[in-house]
Amino acid sequence: MGDLPVQALVPEVPYHMVWLATDACTARCWHCSSNSAKRSPDELDTGEAKALIDELAEAGVVDLGISGGEPLLRRDIMEVMRHARDRGMSFGIASNGAKLAPRRAEELAELGLGRLQVSLDGFAEEHDSLRRWPGLFARVLKTIATARAAGLRVHVCCTITRLSADRLEDFTAFLAETGIRRLNLSRFVPTGRGTAALDPGDAAWRGIIIRCAALKRAYAGRMEITTHLAQEALVDPDVMAMPVFAGCQAGRGQGCVTANGTVLPCVLLPLALGNIRQKGFRRIWAESPVVRELKDRSRLAGACGACGLRERCGGCRALAYARSGNALGEDPRCWTMQERPARLLQ
Ligand code: SF4
Ligand code: SF4
Fold it and tell me: Could you identify the atom of ligand 1 that is nearest to the CA of residue 319?
């Protein structure tokens, strides 16, 4: 298959941004990509956070994912979210789920929080060991119940690691029974505190990605299942049939702003593009050579650069960077490399 002319569909500004509201967290997860622990002294204050939201909204960003750290630890988080709502943005919050008082859940629902995403990285054994917090799994289930009782839409994010990879089907069935309507199966990327020891191994990912696609099909209509965009077109004919699908969205349809205002192309790709204290978001994004390169797949190197599917996939840029230090390098989990040149390199 030759390259498809989808360059025109690359958005000028991302439609989705993640804001890491704080570095403070009550957990010390083994795989944390943000290396969170304590509040950093240079975090954006309330006025700066609101100004950031203004800039994002004015630039055309439509959805904001508020993460961390544990964003609910920020004292001003309700005020900042109210500001996002008043600016017409859709927004959600990602929490470790350790604690949610009924009153707080009601306040979040009254505020119009679009989604509460909690992390569950498998059943109790896997989750509590990865999050280094015995009893956390049970606490998250309690948070889910509290949130649902308040009328909040609850999503689960599960990072697939060596600990959870074998039981994805059972775990997904468990979540469906719990009433979860959306599950993000996030592929582990060894960044932040995450070490290679948690990785199921390059050879295992083909099977895992195929199983994620099968789960997505099996639960269609009951639970929405999302996963990383790289390689999705390879395993899902419906995705391949979507002419606008362009795979990895780092530096394209999504980006991230850290607790101190540093802009990144993706929450898992720690390449600083600039800081909103020095330059406005729109200028950082428009002038960044990294963003320019990520938008242009002809700049990719190695197997991804030579791949006929690069416009539909692009490989996970965060994984390429984590493994080689080159965000434009090849995605080492891709199995098509072993199959070349016969089928895909045409
Ligand atoms: S770099 Fe990886 S995690 Fe980030 S958008 Fe691309 S595929 Fe997703
Ligand atoms: S070589 Fe890269 S662009 Fe091609 S299918 Fe594999 S990960 Fe995707």
Answer: 2
